[in-house]
Amino acid sequence: AQSVAQPEDQVNVAEGNPLTVKCTYSVSGNPYLFWYVQYPNRGLQFLLKYITGDNLVKGSYGFEAEFNKSQTSFHLKKPSALVSDSALYFCAVRSAYSGAGSYQLTFGKGTKLSVIP
Amino acid sequence: EAQVTQNPRYLITVTGKKLTVTCSQNMNHEYMSWYRQDPGLGLRQIYYSMNVEVTDKGDVPEGYKVSRKEKRNFPLILESPSPNQTSLYFCASSLGYLADTIYFGEGSWLTVV
User: Fold this and answer.
1) What are phi and psi of A62, to 5 degrees?
2) B17-69 per-position pLDDT tens digit
3) Average of per-residue pLDDT values in chain B
4) Which chain B residue shows the shortest CA-CA distance from A110?
5) How far apart are CA B5 and CA B23, in angstroms?
6) CA dist., res. B50 & res. B93, Å (int)
7) Closest approach of chain B CAs to the CA of A52, in angstroms?
8) What H or E segment, with its residue span, contains residue B37?
């Protein structure tokens, strides 16, 4: 079964400092990887994805993520955090394999990011 | 505007009283799914649908039913709700199961007393 681990329930970072939110995954075959953000009382919003190609992917709001196949990781990063980045972040994985039973999208438990002014 | 619309957004109901949470998308997406979000557990998939009349169980299907009679609609049915189904529910859709971008509804807060 596929799975996603976000080892930190909460990440605190000072405004202007770089931030990293960690994600590791387990899936059969090649992965499709995603990051979503959830603001209070809202649905999830797509940030970025890795499908194939460059290991460093850039997304919305200045976020980027690095795919590392050997470490099965897909950490979310931003060079300079803003207070408005404070939210709940979810990593998700889906198998690129198109066989039966591979159609699920599995989310991590989420990491709460707090950017301190 | 591309939208996934869920109703109701907030509901308090009693144990055993059947309820349906509707979900509708206006993007002609084939793939739709339901998730529940619980503190410390993240999002867990309940059911998904590859297309009309094609549905399958996710990770936590017990106590739920779904149907996909039309492409745009994917209702979630709780035949006999129990307190452990108190949760925040999200409907989502995408162009196909391998589509990269998934659109989420705003969520439905359900409390079963």
Assistant:
1) 85, 5
2) 999 999 999 999 999 999 999 988 888 999 999 899 999 998 899 999 999 99
3) 92
4) B42
5) 6
6) 10
7) 11
8) strand B31-38
Nearest to B91 by CA among B12, B3, B2: B3
Instruction: Give the tokens for residue A37.
Output: 């953000």
- A2 residue type, one letter: Q
Cα angle for residues A56, A58, A59 (degrees, 5° grid):
145
A11-34 pLDDT, tens digit per residue, is 999 999 999 999 999 988 888 999
Residue B42's nearest CA partner among A109, A22, A34, A37 is: A109
CA distance A13 to chain B (A): 21
Q: What is the pLDDT of residue B102?
A: 85
Q: B11: Cβ–Cβ under 8 A, 6 or more apart, which residues?
A: B19, B21, B108, B109, B110, B111
Contact B43 A44 (CB under 8 A): yes
